[in-house]
Write a structure and sequence with these properties.
single chain, 10 strands
Amino acid sequence: MASHGYQSGRLNLPFVGIATFGKYPYVPDWSAIDADVAVLGAPLDMGTQWRSGARFGPRGIREASTLFAFGHAGAYDHEDDATYLDGARIVDLGDADIVHTDQATSHDNIEAGVRAILAAGALPVVLGGDHSVNIPCINAFSEQEPIHIVQIDAHLDFVDERHGVTLGHGNPMKRASEKPYVTGLSQFGIRNVSSTAKEGYEDARAQGSDILSVRQFRALGPEGALARVPEGKRYYLTIDIDGFDPSIAPGTGTPSHGGFLYYEILELIAGLAKRGEIVGIDLVEVAPDYDSTGTTSILAAQLLLNTIGRILAAR
């Protein structure tokens, strides 16, 4: 991020300028992606079953991310004694086009964006949107090597079909499990009054899911939980912000008390980046209008930037 004028030119404070993700360059031409990481917005919330509003997630996360774009040469972490994101080649592709009331076309547009990122050899980082946007993201990996999904979430999202609905935000992990190139799922944070019946848990485990609640995760610790994730694989990371406790992430459609705190998940992700290769990320269900303080969007942006930093460092 040295090019942001640390010593010369504009001071470029967070509230100045256009709010791209991390104030990284905007690339509207998806056929001209030349970067290590490409951020794509997926502002769709037609899949929600209760409170909508995650369509404003990408905008909220981008605005919050400017807080971490002060123009320093990377981000120094004194605990790790490492400088992350120094010289990182990150671009913001803007948003997939969302066609209101047409979930299928909107999903197709998201999938096209992720496919363009993968074709360019970059890491896709998708900003939701509700968790249904994960479905086109996973679809886009059909021509790639197999992936293992690591999910951070309060809800299992393993519903097959309900009243004909198969592509809502309760369905993505079930849809993913059906893919021949998805080798398994690690589902962490699942808790409380769930969106999935007992049969769903039995189905998920039969399909190769490893399910841990927050309390089970804490009993193991991040390292113990990480040890349960198959080693040396290509990981796809899907983060539902409601996996975190609503005391730190109230801005979401279906908050569930008893959630994760920041460092638990950062430590898990840092370990994951070293245990194998993180090849795709989506962060979903940020609905800024339910959080007047903006802290949910800040959590999302901070987690993503630190995740990207650790992935690039692990390479």
